[in-house]
Amino acid sequence: MGIFAKLSHRIGDNLVRSNVVKEEDAEIYIYGINQILVSVLNVSSALIIGWIFDVVLEIAVFMAAYIPLRTFAGGYHAKTPLRCYFFSVVMLIIVSMGINYYS
Known about the structure:
mainly alpha
């Protein structure tokens, strides 16, 4: 179990114990919390890479176009979420370098 999955379960369990969430709905909340954490990591990483390469605005525009495309068009799927994250980071670094090179 990954760090985000553990954290999501801990948050979900606390929500159930606090009577904020019904126990039968806990898995749905845990899944949602996990997705939020992964999304925050991805966006934060993209912005940090943009900041390092001094192309934050360009990366924000790229991600605004790329995320819907990636969501609806399908394509390559890494075998693990960690591999997917690393492929995304490498892709963003290459895009950032390309932006700097062609500017």
